[in-house]
From TrEMBL:
Pfam families: Rce1-like. GO terms for biological process: CAAX-box protein maturation. PANTHER family: CAAX AMINO TERMINAL PROTEASE FAMILY PROTEIN, SLR1288 PROTEIN. It comes from Mucilaginibacter gossypiicola. The keyword Flavoprotein does not apply. One of its GO terms (molecular function) is endopeptidase activity. The lineage of its organism: Bacteria, Pseudomonadati, Bacteroidota, Sphingobacteriia, Sphingobacteriales. Keywords: Membrane, Transmembrane, Transmembrane helix. Residues 172-259 form the CAAX prenyl protease 2/Lysostaphin resistance protein A-like domain. The chain crosses the membrane at residues 20-48, 68-89, 110-130, 172-190, 202-221, 251-269, 285-302. This is CAAX prenyl protease 2/Lysostaphin resistance protein A-like domain-containing protein. The keyword Membrane applies.
Amino acid sequence: MIKAPSQSPQPQGSQITPFLQFIILIALTVGLLIVCSLIAAGIIGLIFGSQTLTDTFTFNVQNPHVGAALWTLQIISTTLPLYLVPVIFARFIVKEPVDYLKVTPKFPPVLLLLILSIMICSSPVMEVLVNVNQKLALPAPLKSLEDALRAMEAQAQKATEAMLQMKTVSDMLFAVLVVGLLTAVAEEFLFRGCLQTIMIRWTGNPHAAIWITAILFSAFHMEFFTFLPRVALGVFFGYFVMWSGSIWTSVWAHFLNNATQVVILYLYSQKRITLDPNDQHVFNYQSYALSVIIILILLFMYRNTAKGKSPLLS
């Protein structure tokens, strides 16, 4: 009896089209965010009482329990579901955790140093993007929408300030752990892991996928007036992963960005430094131009190093 030639098994995720994968990922994200928000509200109400629950959602920092309640809300309603969604999606829906989570640690360690250099040298570019973004205004017929966006951003800023009232080094380290590390892992698994992989398979163009993912990443944060710098960060993170093949490169970059902001805010609040973290007029035009040149050189070196070439060769 002649046996039919054996065929290599196809990835389970290939049975689901990229478009349907995208819809499932969005639905799963929204669903878990809602469920975990309800759970977080219930826990806050049980531990701190109904008044603190109300004060938490109105950012009444006069209530001494609001800070702890906000951290509870952040971890349970946001960080936890953003971590669970990509893990569930990659392992149980598309069943391709290696391709969709990219947790391989196999990449040249020097890439971490290059990422650190890129993040430091990108500060002037980010300042330009922040200033440009702040000057953007919606057309007159959408003035009410712009006012609503500004109000939402002001509320988000109040929540951040309430959470980041760091009085001790322990407070700072806790914020670095949650805002820096845990948030970086959760968001990178979701965006540069699952979503970017879906977009690459959907568009067939890795560069388009990186930019689309970066735009969706920025839109997810619902902060219109910091939209452009967050898109730029998303693009950096996307190329770090695409060239290295590992999610840990973008996690490292994301951690550096978030943790640095926390540490600078702490040092400023403790009067250890005079640089105001909200000051967006630190650099000059020469710094902006030099920043762009250095970033391009470092990205060129990163790509070649990740591909196993000499850093200075094409």
